[in-house]
Amino acid sequence: MAQAKIKSVYETLSSLSIKDKVERKGNLDYLSWANAWHMLKQKYPTAQRKVYEHEHTGFNYFTDGKTAWVKVGIVVGDIEHIDMLPIMDFRNNSISVDKMTSMDVNKAIQRSTAKAIAMHGLGLSLWTGEDVPELTAPPKEVAPKLIALKVGDANWKKVEGYILDNKTKPLADIVQKLGSKYTQGSLKVAEKAIKKLLA
Fold first, then answer.
1. Domain boundary assignment for the chain
2. Disulfide check for 121: which of 10, 21, 77, 111 has CB 3.0–4.6 Å away?
């Protein structure tokens, strides 16, 4: 008789639905450390968390003298996944050591706990794209190329139709709208003809 395949920890945890546990903060979705820990312990009651401490200071964070980070391990069975997370503010920017509080360290440990659990499979999809580099500057918008408007040419017929369809609008609104396609100089020249259509 064939033995049933035993699911791996990863297969088991990644198949759990977190849909009703996901929360939103700003424009990011996240699974709180408490919900992640609860779901993990329901499936694996012997799972353990290890918050690493600096061997010389005994502090529960590590530092390069400027910023700091925490190190958290989650052990399920004989597998430990370790996450290292910078101590950050609410904008996800590193906090300098001189401005850091114990509350900042605690928040980083809890968030790192959720990430280390995710490495075992629970809610991992929420971290997708986290390692994608940010653009240093937004791409430049290319301004549309404006064309000259001449009374009587092919474009004028379209403009004439637009003006007649919007006769109830003020002249300034019509000229502003046309300014997104036609040069200001050519609109000045055509203004007399536009006013005549609005009369």
1. 9-127, 154-198
2. 10
3-class secondary structure for 38-65? HHHHHHCCCCEEEECCCCCCCCCCEECC
| Residue pLDDT, tens place only, 154-174 | 878 888 888 888 888 887 888
Other Cβ atoms within 10 Å of 137 Cβ, number: 5
In this predicted structure, what is the pLDDT of residue 23?
85
Contact between 74 and 113 (Cβ < 8 Å):
yes
Which pLDDT does position 133 carry in this prediction? 54
Instruction: Give, in degrees to the nearest 5, the angle at Cα 66 between 62 and 67.
Output: 50
Closest CA to 143 of 114, 116, 179: 179
Gap between the Cα atoms of 19 and 10, Å rounded: 18
Superfamily of domain 9-127: DNA repair protein Rad52/59/22 (3.30.390.80)
CA dihedral 168, 170, 173, 179 (to 10 degrees): 100
Burial 156-175 (b: 16+ CB within 10 A, else e): eeebeeebeeeeeeeeeebb
